Amino acid sequence: MRLLKCTDGQFQQPCDFPDGARGSYLLMSRAAKEKIGSTLSRYGEFLPLKCEEGHFWAFHVTHFVDALDENASDLLRSSETPKVVLMIHKHVFRPEKLTADWMFKLPQSRGRGRFYVTDPFVNLIRASGLTGLDFKRVWPHS
Q1: pLDDT of residue 142 exceeding 80
Q2: Please, are residues 87 and 113 in contact by the beta-carbon 8 Å criterion?
Q3: Binning pLDDT at 50, 70 and 90, where does residue 109 land?
Q4: Within its chain, how far is the Cα of 139 from the centroid?
Q5: How far, CA to CA in Å, does 103 sit from each of 2, 35, 79?
Q6: Contact at 8 Å (CB) between 104 and 61?
Q7: DSSP letter assigned to residue 64
């Protein structure tokens, strides 16, 4: 891993989550792992990254919750395998399935794709003073 220090001629500010939460992994600094690692460990695994500029980890979410209401959601399914969800345009979750989980993936993703977080995780990050994450609410819809 290499840290980008300059993008489009602009210097990048150091942060605790250098890639935000754009992919299927959550990249984090040592400070982030030390502050929230014990809370996250029940939802996945920390994979060390090789980087000469510091200590970083990729957090791989391995916790799945079958919370998606497929009938109420707007989904794009595979034409070859209709049970496979390729994309979710509009999320609708079953609230009774999201009672205690702070971070999860959907079984419909088959281990690939994005992970989801709930309000307790968002509140933890905001209270921690860690930087680099922005959150996009996908449900309930406003």
Answers
A1: no
A2: no
A3: confident
A4: 15
A5: 27, 16, 30
A6: yes
A7: B
Reported for 130-137, long-range contacts at CB under 8 A and 24+ positions apart, including other chains, are 130/16, 130/17, 130/31, 130/32, 130/35, 130/36, 131/13, 131/15, 131/16, 131/17, 132/15, 132/16, 132/17, 132/18, 132/20, 133/16, 133/17, 133/20, 133/21, 134/20, 135/21
140 preceded by a cis bond (ω within 30 of 0):
yes
Which residues sit opposite 75 in a β-bridge? Answer: 88
Two tokens, residue 95 = 């609230």
- Say which residue, 75 or 12, is predicted with more confidence: 75
CA-to-CA distance for 56 and 1, rounded, in angstroms?
Answer: 9
**The pLDDT value given to residue 1:** 54
Q: What is the pLDDT of residues 34-88, one digit of tens each?
A: 999 999 999 999 999 998 878 899 999 999 999 999 999 999 988 998 888 888 9
Is residue 136 exposed (0-12), middle (13-18) or buried (19+ Cβ within 10 Å)?
A: exposed
Nearby residues of 142 by Cβ (< 8 Å), 6 or more positions away: none
CB 84, CB 112: distance < 8 Å:
no
